[in-house]
């Protein structure tokens, strides 16, 4: 092989080399940063330090900070927030689904070794105008969760599981408000057992 071909081969080898870091491990580190401190408070320097990569590698693998955050939210919902959708889908009634959702929230929001509370609720509470689209994105996710609860409540009303004069929207908002409050209480240090008791009390407000 002549010198020219050797240089071409070297360049091809460099291009074909895998990243020197595990992308999923790095993403999990980013999730923990955003979850613990929120979108605004976390800088690129914070992320590269937590993810154990250099800034050019971060941009190459994940894009900018906003794009990384959006991927982190998707991964968080898949790995930590999916209990909400599972409860609403798997339980036969809205009452049982939302009771399970609140009960499991007490566990998921107090996971040992993880930030407390819900990342979707707390990661963008004090955004500057420059990050307004980040806040709107999380607000939309929360709105969709309320709509999902309202649909299962309305379905129960249609089947006679709930009284016909039940206000499905208000009951869904109430359930979401309890969920959000449990997240904040978890961040303030309230233990799992207390939050489970809160979930039980909250369900007593449901119509017979």
TrEMBL record:
GO MF: DNA binding
Spans traversing the lipid bilayer: none
Domain of life, per lineage: Bacteria
Gene3D superfamilies xrefs: Homeodomain-like, Tetracycline Repressor, domain 2
Signal peptide span: none
Residue ranges occupied by any HTH tetR-type domain in the UniProt entry: 20-80
InterPro entries to which the protein is assigned, alphabetical: Homeodomain-like_sf (IPR009057), HTH_TetR (IPR001647), Tet_transcr_reg_TetR-rel_C_sf (IPR036271), TetR_C (IPR011075)
DNA-binding residues (ranges): 43-62
Pfam families in alphabetical order: TetR_C_13, TetR_N
Keywords: DNA-binding, Transcription, Transcription regulation
Protein name, per record: TetR/AcrR family transcriptional regulator
Originating organism: Streptomyces palmae
């Amino acid at each position: 092989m002549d010198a020219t071909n050797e240089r071409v081969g070297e360049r091809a080898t460099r291009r074909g080399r895998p990243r020197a870091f595990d992308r999923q491990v790095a993403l999990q580190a980013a999730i923990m940063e955003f979850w613990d401190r929120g979108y605004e408070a976390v800088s690129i320097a914070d992320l590269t330090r937590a993810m154990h990569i250099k800034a050019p590698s971060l941009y190459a693998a994940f894009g900018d900070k906003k794009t990384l955050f959006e991927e982190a939210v998707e991964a968080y919902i898949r790995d930590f927030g999916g209990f909400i959708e599972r409860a609403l889908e798997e339980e036969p009634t809205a009452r049982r689904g939302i009771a399970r959702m609140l009960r499991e929230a007490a566990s998921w929001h107090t996971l040992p070794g993880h930030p407390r509370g819900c990342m979707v609720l707390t990661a963008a509470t004090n955004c500057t105008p420059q990050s307004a689209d980040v806040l709107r994105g999380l607000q939309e996710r929360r709105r969709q969760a309320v709509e999902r609860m309202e649909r299962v409540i309305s379905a129960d009303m249609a089947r006679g599981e709930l009284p016909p004069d039940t206000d499905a929207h208000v009951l869904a908002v109430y359930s979401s408000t309890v969920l959000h409050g449990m997240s904040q209480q978890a961040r303030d240090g309230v233990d799992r057992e207390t939050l489970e008791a809160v979930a039980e009390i909250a369900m007593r407000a449901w119509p017979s």
